[in-house]
Amino acid sequence: MKLQGKKVLQLVSDDFEDLELWYPVHRLREEGAHVILAGEKADHAYIGKYGVPAKSDVAFDDVDITSFDAILVPGGWSPDLLRRFDSVKGFVRYMDEQKRPIGQICHAGWVLISANILDGVNVTSTPGIKDDMENAGAIWHDEPVVVDGHIVSSRRPPDLPDYMRAFIDVFAKQ
């Protein structure tokens, strides 16, 4: 198991893209990582776009980001909610400053935009937010996965296998 003993913060709020949250969680757990789901409230069931629930382990206010080795931002419509929390933007900025792995897929780029960390960074996302990404200074590519240092980005659910292989590889090298 490549990630034994590593700790990952998975952000969650309502209207996450079900596969884009759960597929990474399961893959990382298969590799031995300890994945913690953080939402606005602890022990709260957030509902995905297709009705699959995800129960938070901890509230944003109770997260000690310094104890985490990586962070994942799911897609769907939840990134528009997540980026409204100063704590969430702070988590992403901290991970960026520390060069710890940041995974983002689909609309998750909105959170990285709001955290102001994309200037000059090579990324991908759902094509629907390409303009937003470029307006934030990112260099956008229409590819299944783009790795720029510690930031791993992907477009949509069909790209999940490529996304997680790349994220796990980046994470395992840390």
TrEMBL record:
Keywords of the record: Hydrolase, Protease
Domain called DJ-1/PfpI: residue spans: 6-168
Biological process terms in GO annotation: proteolysis
Gene3D superfamilies: 3.40.50.880
Single GO term (MF): peptidase activity
PROSITE patterns in alphabetical order: PEPTIDASE_C56_PFPI (PS51276)
Family affiliation: Belongs to the peptidase C56 family.
Protein name per UniProt: Intracellular protease, PfpI family
Organism of this sequence: Exiguobacterium sp. (strain ATCC BAA-1283 / AT1b)
